[in-house]
């Protein structure tokens, strides 16, 4: 298939056919952990270890993440049928913190169909939704269910975390392991609330 002649709509349609539910994604990740493997093109031991760590993170957020009553009301009032198509990989640390939160929001409204595709298996799609020229994930594409029109996007991080990363990059040559640890600590403290706020703003 020549992706040069495909429209974004064509690419989205093809990707949706390859997509899975969040529950199917979670099952896939858990299975990969048992096999000491990972999604994506890089099957190294390091990536497999990230997948194992992320499975634990997602288990925790699946159990503990909460949506406030005020946010719940806003989510439940949304009345347009949309697909939230998320590009991800099991080794991605940001995705492990964000994808369970997306699920908590999507579960509150039947108009939101949450689907997942893997980045390395959907290169044409990823190339349409780059962040500053990079294949950053997770990336949520909000699509009209009837027309496949792209309505908005979110990711790879909530706005607060994005600002933290950009500020660090402005003052340092590269992202350090220490900063990555600080970012994980921020996710744990934030408990998904910044992600929920950003997702609710997509719906308004």
SSE layout and pairing:
Layout (H helix, E strand, L loop, with lengths): L7 H10 L2 E2 H13 L10 H20 L4 H8 L5 E7 L4 H14 L5 E7 L4 H6 L10 E6 L5 E5 L4 H13 L5 H14 L2 H11 L1
Parallel strand pairs: 2-3
Antiparallel strand pairs: 1-3, 2-4, 4-5
Helix pairs in contact: 2-3, 3-5, 5-9, 7-8
Q: What does this protein structure show overall?
A:
The chain has 204 residues and is an alpha+beta fold. It is built from nine helices and five strands; from the N terminus they run αβαααβαβαββααα. It has one domain: Glutaredoxin, CATH 3.40.30. It has a five-stranded mixed beta sheet with strand order 1-3-2-4-5, sandwiched between helices. β2, α5 and β3 form a beta-alpha-beta unit. α2 packs across α3. InterPro entries: Thioredoxin-like_sf. This is Thioredoxin-like protein.
How many distinct beta strands?
Answer: 5
Give the strand order, joined by hyphens, for the main sheet.
1-3-2-4-5
Order of SSEs: HEHHHEHEHEEHHH
Q: What is the level-2 CATH architecture name?
A: 3-Layer(aba) Sandwich
Q: Describe the largest sheet.
A: 5 strands, mixed
Fourth-tier CATH superfamily name: Glutaredoxin
Radius of gyration over all CA atoms, rounded = 17 Å
| Count of discrete domains | 1
CATH class division: Alpha Beta
What distinguishing features does this structure have?
alpha+beta, 204 residues, Thioredoxin-like protein, Glutaredoxin, Thioredoxin-like_sf
Summarize the entry for a quick read.
53% of the residues lie in helices and 13% in strands. It has helices at 8-17, 22-34, 45-64, 69-76, 93-106, 123-128, 159-171, 177-190, 193-203; strands at 20-21, 82-88, 112-118, 139-144, 150-154. The chain has a five-stranded mixed sheet, with helices on both faces.
